[in-house]
Structure to design on (197 residues):
């Protein structure tokens, strides 16, 4: 009886589980701490209840250990590197909390678009100006653009003049963030709300 040759075709795809169950992703700490701070002879030590100054790495690590805390490298590019003596878990928690606060402050600014043609008349311009004033007063950014269809691209100077005129009429409520710039068939200008005094 003939024996079957061993299967030598392509292996079935393993997917995210890997050959021996789910793969474990080891998340690295964003900072070097304690014995992981290598290749450094001296460090500038900061922290609460610590005499701040420049110490040898060994002395700084011993100081952290005496206090039952960690030596955390917070500014590796400084000369000498800056290390904080702190509870690393608390340090990370405070850092995440700060980042969340910063994100909350950077509230998503709404973007409103106002479209023109190169031959927009005075009446239409005034109508769109009123919309833009309302948007800026509400704190939204305004993306004003002139769309050039077909051969109207030859009127790009006309489009630029129109956008600049539009920006000038909005100078009480808005500031030009980006001057008119041609991108493909559109000439775009960005206007942001003026900060209220």
């Amino acid at each position: 009886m003939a024996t079957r040759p061993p299967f030598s075709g392509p292996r079935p795809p393993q997917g995210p589980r890997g050959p021996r169950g789910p793969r474990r992703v080891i998340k690295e700490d964003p900072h070097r701490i304690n014995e992981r701070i290598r290749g450094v002879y001296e460090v500038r030590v900061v922290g609460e209840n610590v005499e701040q100054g420049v110490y040898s790495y060994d002395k700084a690590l011993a100081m952290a250990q005496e206090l039952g805390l960690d030596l955390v490298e917070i500014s590796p590019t400084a000369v000498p590197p800056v290390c904080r003596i702190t509870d690393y878990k608390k340090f990370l928690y405070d850092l995440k909390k700060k980042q969340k606060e910063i994100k909350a402050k950077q509230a998503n600014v709404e973007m409103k678009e106002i479209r023109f043609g190169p031959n927009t008349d005075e009446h239409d311009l005034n109508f769109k100006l009123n919309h833009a004033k309302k948007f800026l007063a509400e704190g939204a950014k305004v993306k004003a653009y002139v769309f050039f269809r077909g051969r109207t691209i030859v009127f790009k100077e006309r489009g630029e003049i129109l956008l600049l005129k539009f920006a000038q009429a909005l100078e009480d409520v808005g500031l030009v963030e980006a001057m008119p710039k041609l991108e493909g068939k559109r000439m775009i200008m960005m206007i942001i709300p003026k900060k209220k005094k």
